[in-house]
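Run log, item B.
One chain of 192 residues. Sequence copied directly from the ordering sheet:
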Amino acid sequence: MAQIFQNQKHIIIPILLFTLVIQAQYSHQFSKKLSPKSLGLKKQKLTHLHFYYHDIRTTSPPHVVQVAEAATTNTSKTGFGGVSVLDGPLTVGPELTSKIVGRAQGMTASADLNDFGFLFVINYIFTDGKYNGSTLSVLGRNQVLLPVREMPIVGGTGVFRFARGYVLTNTRFFNVSSGDGAFEYNVYVLHY
């Protein structure tokens, strides 16, 4: 038997090496195609959400806090370089006392030297009804002086897993001296 192995080793060793290379190549896949059904996803639907975000700086604790600024932020006509974090309520109506359906959490940065344009990185965390525990993520430019602004929805969790869409927002109330405001949101989201 040992002599058979000695005579055939020039064939057996390359076969073993080839088998190991092929096995290693296919045992660690980077990607593969899946059907939506394999993840339990059903038919895609379009949902419209309507709520108000309250940006209140005069409460204790405030809903918005500036956490960083550039050396030139205070002399810039647009506050360029200012970065704020926020955690404010989402409500059914424009009054701060109306029913809370979630929170907006994230950050904004003044990112335009010439106009009031902010980078928005915001998560809407829903706390009511069938959307409780689900989130939507928005990442985009908010030109706050326009009557209506549009920003993209880049993802979501829970009910909104695989979400995409857009939000339209407008200012319902803004106090220039305090910085407090209320903003209306119409959200159009595709999800499963």
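Observations after the first pass:
- The longest strand covers residues 45-55.
- DSSP finds one helix and nine strands in the chain.
Flagged for discussion on Thursday.
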